[in-house]
Write a structure and sequence with these properties.
273 residues; alpha+beta; L-fuculose-1-phosphate Aldolase; 2 domains; nine-stranded mixed β-sheet; 11 helices; elongated; binds Dihydroxyacetone; binds zinc ion
Length: 273
Amino acid sequence: MSMQNIVESQFVKEMCEITQVMYRRNWDERNGGNITLLLTEKEVAPYTDLTDIKRTIPVDFDAKALAGKYFLVTGSGKYFKNVEKDPEHNLGLIRVSEQGNGVELLWGLADGSVPTSELPSHFQSHIARLSVDPENRVIMHCHATHLLAMTFTHSLDEKELTRKLWKLCTECIVVFPEGVSTIPWIVPGTNEIGEATSEKMKETRLVVWPYHGIYGAGQTMDETFGLIETVEKAAEVYTHVQAQGGMKAEISDEQLQQLADRFGVEPRPGYLD
Ligand code: 2HA
Ligand code: ZN
């Protein structure tokens, strides 16, 4: 049986679509942002010869917990703007090596480039999310504009930030009842920021990077995009509210509890009065 064209696969098409939407939302200027999507062997097998390793790319962190797993990833230095028109140069299909010290390239990154510079944060976040949600498949990072701006003007205390976001849009507490986490400012691309992010990922699917952007996690590309879209919407509303003279009303704690009851979600304990 001949191989099917991977560019026609549902997972590459979805990656192309989402990166383009994110670019148009102005969240991924230049090479900003990165996405990794966990795939099963069954999903990738029709599209690529699993024994034909194009290159092995070393990683300098321990990815052993993900050994043998397949990921569709955005490339380092690549622009979300360009993914859709040229997936083969901007995306890569990789498998984590048995020793967990490298990734085996099966398709893409055609000009000799490497996976996203944020691979440590992504892989460590995948490990953390899988430990609490075996269905987690997506880690998504972008520079969501209003949320990024809000990290300069609002408290980064997790409870205070979460409560503010919940109180800006009625749907927020339903979409991210566990709230958002924050980490200190850390140099991107390092194992250190990966460790800090993944530690928080055990508790929340959203982790704010001050003066930089956001990390989101989820079971599907759509769900993860929707999660980031929702928190970014609240931050956008906050921007308008501040420009209009500041908050003169808010969704009350009692109303937030009513929403949680109605939609069957459990707000982070201790966050509502
Ligand atoms: O890949 O967004 O955080 C570019 C970035 C790094
Ligand atoms: Zn970034």
